[in-house]
């Protein structure tokens, strides 16, 4: 659960920051 949430938050977070 923790790993899934961490990735789910990290993926969109990086996408917004990258763009």
UniProtKB/TrEMBL annotation:
Full protein name: Uncharacterized protein
Source organism phylogeny: Eukaryota, Viridiplantae, Streptophyta, Embryophyta, Tracheophyta
Organism: Nymphaea colorata
